[in-house]
Structures are given as structure tokens and as C-alpha cells.
Amino acid sequence: MQNNVSSPQALKLLFVSTPVGGLGTGLGGGVELSLYNIAKEMLRRGHTLQIVAPTGSLWNEFAITQIPGNLQVIAQSQERNDPITMPSNSLLANMWAYARQVQTEYDLIVNFAYDWLPFYLTPFFQTPIAHFVSMGSLSDAIDQIITQVSKSFPHTIGFYTPSQGATFANLTTPCHYLSSGLDLSLYQFCGEPRQQLAWLGRISPEKALEDAVEVAVKTNIPLKIMGKIQDEKYWQKICHDYPHAPIEYLGFLSTDKMQSVVRECQALLMTPRWVEAFGNVAIEALACGVPVISYSRGGPAEIIQDGKTGFLVEPDSVTGLIDAVTKLDTINRQACRQQAETEFSLEALGLRFENWFQMILDSRY
Ligand code: UDP
Q1: Distance of CA 281 from the midpoint of ligand 1 (Å)
Q2: What is the pLDDT of residue 175?
Q3: pTM here?
Q4: Cα–Cα distance between 335 and 290 in angstroms, integer?
Q5: Which of 15, 152, 181, 187 has its CA 20 to 30 A from that of 266?
Q6: CATH of the domain at 78
């Protein structure tokens, strides 16, 4: 166990989670792991923390206020110019009504939802709100409200990466890039993999799992698939289109089980069709000593050191992925773990968030 470290000022923090699914269910994607890691590190640094999250959240190591209501529709399933929609008995609205009631007990509220409402509510709150934006630009209405908040409340918008931030074309004010980080002790290094590849993540069209399945078919290297099936029809179509592919779906696994499979793989394949804001799965693989082969766009293109800790290939080129698989023996798996240790530790993540929070608080006075 690590001891608490002393921080410049111990903050009282209220984290408001994503309204698309309970914490620990996988429906929220990478932002769940990010929220978990930031929460853990903030507590270790001596801050106090309360999490507001949907009823049905599964974590028990944090103080979580569980809020009932109907889940919000995921932004990835909407068209760019769709209006903002709210279900009846909206969980998102319920979470923010609760945050409004308790706001004076906290120094800072941190919003992890990629939704219009919390941005809109910012000027109506007395307590400052830090908005951690977890995806690239997907919706005109959300882009507009983010731009508005970034102008009226300097420093309050945080992104994972510059390539994610660049998708928000109208943002002119300075934004903060927080990257990501892991508790590296949870991921074990494996120097000698089996002949198999891994694919990890939400099973949803923007992740283009079918390209990784095609790699498995063409190379005849087994592919282990792990993650939440978010779009059942999409998954069924893949199973139908590739009936004899050497693939195995293992379900949505806990971090411990997931890393025990991933670390024995020759590489992780990342096939994002969209601009991935970060790609937590990339650093999870690196932490196990597993090189990452990805399309060269978005977060993975900022993470992977081409030729050293994996390969960046032409976007949407399955041939490119296959070529990279043939070069995997040129990668030193120790270099992969080393990159995770140097760039993506929990301590470094905590320091970046703490500095960001402090900057928001300082700019208020
Ligand atoms: N994940 C998991 N178990 C699995 C497969 C995936 O816990 O079996 C998690 C993984 O740790 C990562 C998240 O699912 O945090 C996927 O996030 P990523 O940032 O790669 O993409 P996103 O879903 O946010 O688009």
C-alpha cells in the first residue's frame, strides 16, 4: 500500500458519472476506467471524494451516491445534427439535481458525462464544474455548448488528447489535455506470448471489430475478443459474416482477468473507425508488455511509438494490419512496459488532474 502524499490543498470533490450505464458495467467504455483511476489517485493524494453514479453501479471501494432514472442514449448512436433528447425520469437530470442540492459541500464538481445538460447548467451552479470530455466531436449541439462554456469559464474543459480536442473545430480558448494513466501494479508483464492476438473494447460499429476478425481469418492467428456488447445486431452480423473465423468471445472481463488474457497475446489490434479520444486499452496492453497495432488516427496515434511499442498503419487498411502482424518479432516487449511506466503512471495522471483542478479554482478569483 502506498501512503497518502501531501497535496497543496486538500479538495472536496464531487464526481458526477456518465448517465449511459452503471459504473463497472462497461457501458460507459473507457471513461469508467478513467474515473476509477482518477478517483483512486485523488484519494491517495489526500483529497475527499464523493461519486454520483447510476443505480446499479458495481464498485464498492468508493463512496457512491446511486441515483435512479432512465439511462441516457449514447452519443455515438446519434446523427451529428440530431436534437438533444431526454428520456422521462432522466437519470442525467436526476444526477445533476442531486449535485445542485449538495454543491455547497464541495470545492469542485467534475463532470464525466458527454452530454449537453451539464455544460448548459454550468452558469447556474455556484460551485465550479470541471468538464472532462471523453469523446471527440459527435454532435453540433454539444460542440456549441462546449464552445460556449469554454469561453465563459476558462480552463474548465479537459480532453484526453490534442487529436481529440482538434475535432472540436470552434474551440479557440486554451484547453487542457489530461491523457490517461493506470495502476501499473494491476498489469503483469509477459515476455513470451502465445500465438494469438487480442481485441478489446465496446463492441459497437465505431470500433470496427470486423477488421480485426478479418486479420484473424487471413493470418489464421486466433483472436481473443473481450468487451461489452453494446450493439447486439452489429455483433450478430460479424458472427454471421465470418462463421469460420478463429475467434473467441470471452465476455466483458474484470481488469484482472482481462490482463491475464491480453498479456499472453502477441499484440493488441485497435481498429477505430472514428477519432478515438484516447484508447485506454492501448496503455493496458502496453502495461502487460503487449505491442499495439492500430490505425493511425486519434489517441492511439499519439500513444504508440511506431516500430518500437507497436505499429501505426494506414487507417482502415486491413492489409496494413496484416503487414504489421508479420513484423511483431521486431518489437521488444520490455519497451512496451517501459513506455507505460514512464508515461502512464497513476501518479503522473493524478498530478495532471490536480493541476487542472487548481487552475480552475485559481481562475475563479
Ligand atoms: N474493458 C474491460 N473489460 C473487457 C474489455 C474492456 O474492463 O473485457 C474496458 C477497458 O479496460 C477500457 C474500456 O473497456 O477501459 C474500453 O475503453 P476505451 O478507452 O478503449 O474505449 P471507449 O469504450 O471509451 O471508446
Answers
A1: 6
A2: 84
A3: 0.95
A4: 9
A5: 181
A6: 3.40.50.2000
The verdict on residue 2 lying in a domain is: no
Per the CB < 8 A criterion, the answer to whether 83 and 106 are in contact is: no
Looking at the structure of the chain, the number of domains it has is 2
Question: Could you identify the atom of ligand 1 that is nearest to the CA of residue 299?
Answer: 19
Cα 344 from Cα 75, distance rounded (Å) = 27
Q: Which atom of ligand 1 is nearest to the CA of 284?
A: 11
| Section 197-215 average pLDDT | 97
Residue nearest to ligand 1 atom 16, measured at CA: 30
167 and 195 part of one domain: no
Question: Cα of 6 to ligand 1 centre, how many Å?
Answer: 31
> All 3 cell numbers of residue 235?
455483433
How far, in Å, are 140, 160, 231 from residue 300 at the CA level? 25, 11, 23
**Ligand 1 atom with least separation from CA of 258:** 8
- Hey, whose CA ends up nearest to atom 18 of ligand 1? 30
Whether residue 166 sits in one domain with residue 18: yes
Do 304 and 194 belong together in one domain? Answer: yes
pLDDT at 365: 55
Same domain, 165 and 191: no
> What value does the mean pLDDT take over residues 297-316?
98
Burial 208-219 (b: 16+ CB within 10 A, else e): bbbbbbbbbbeb
Ligand 1 atom 12 nearest Cα: 30
Residue 173: per-residue pLDDT? 76
Minimum-distance ligand 1 atom for the alpha carbon of 252: 8
Calculate what percentage of the chain has a pLDDT beyond 90: 93
Same domain? 163 vs 272:
no
pLDDT confidence of residue 364:
80
Pocket of ligand 1 (CB under 6 A): 26, 29-31, 33, 200-202, 226-227, 252-253, 255, 258, 278-281, 284
Whether 285 and 339 share a structural domain: yes
Range of the domain at 143: 12-181+345-362
Residue 334 is assigned to a structural domain of this protein = yes
Q: How far apart are the first and last CA of the chain?
A: 37
